[in-house]
């Protein structure tokens, strides 16, 4: 149902607001309004929502996304061993990660600036190395890995190193 109805919803959103959104933006917005975690947004496909229901749930929703000021690509994972990683090794060809730092991020938590792990929704405090899922502390990266990622960030002023 979602696959048939989502193009209609995208069209209606454009007709009523003038906003051109992608299929992924629709999926992420619906996951947001239904309070699904970022990494669970694909489950929206299983929801039985009509185009009208999608549009209704997204009335007043801000599709604004802060500009990405910098992306840092790592050649290895810096996540602590016990932090869940939803990607299976069979599905990916490399262990690298892409961390994004947003310009004008509306939420300065956990640090200003902080890094977002693309695809998983984790946030990294760039001063302490603490790793958060939403606002829940789920672990910390090592001091060595924190220093390594900080060394790659060149376009923003970093918070004081606190570890």
Can you describe this structure in just a few lines?
The protein has 163 residues and is of the alpha+beta class. Helices cover 27% and strands 20% of the residues.
Q: Which strand-content bin applies to the residues?
A: 15-25%
Distance between the termini: 50 Å
Q: What is the element string, with H for helices and E for strands?
A: HHHEEEEEEH
Number of domains: 2
Structure in words:
Mean pLDDT is 81; it is low at 86-95. Helix 1 (2-17) packs across helix 3. With 163 residues, the protein is an alpha+beta fold. The protein has four helices and six strands. Strands 1-2-3-4-5-6 form a six-stranded antiparallel β-sheet, with no helix packed on it. It has helices at residues 2-17, 23-33, 51-57, 143-152; strands spanning 67-74, 97-103, 114-117, 122-125, 130-133, 136-140. A hairpin with a 4-residue loop joins strand 4 and strand 5. The N and C termini lie far apart (50 Å). The chain folds into two domains: 2-57, no CATH class; 67-152, no CATH class. It is elongated, with a radius of gyration of 18 Å.
């Amino acid at each position: 149902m979602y696959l048939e109805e989502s193009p209609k919803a995208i069209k209606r959103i454009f007709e009523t607001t003038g906003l051109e959104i992608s299929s992924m933006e629709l999926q992420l917005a619906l996951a947001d309004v239904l309070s699904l975690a970022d990494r669970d947004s694909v489950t929206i496909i299983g929801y039985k929502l009509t185009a009208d229901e999608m549009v209704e749930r997204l009335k007043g929703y801000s599709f604004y996304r802060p500009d990405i000021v910098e992306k840092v690509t790592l050649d290895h994972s810096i996540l602590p061993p016990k932090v869940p990683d939803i990607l299976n090794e069979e599905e990916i060809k490399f262990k690298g990660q892409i961390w994004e730092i947003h310009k004008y991020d509306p939420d300065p938590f956990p640090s200003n600036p902080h890094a977002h792990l693309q695809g998983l929704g984790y946030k990294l405090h760039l001063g302490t190395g603490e790793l958060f899922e939403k606002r829940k502390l789920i672990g910390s990266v090592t001091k060595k890995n924190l220093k390594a990622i900080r060394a790659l960030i060149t376009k923003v002023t970093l918070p004081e190193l606190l570890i």
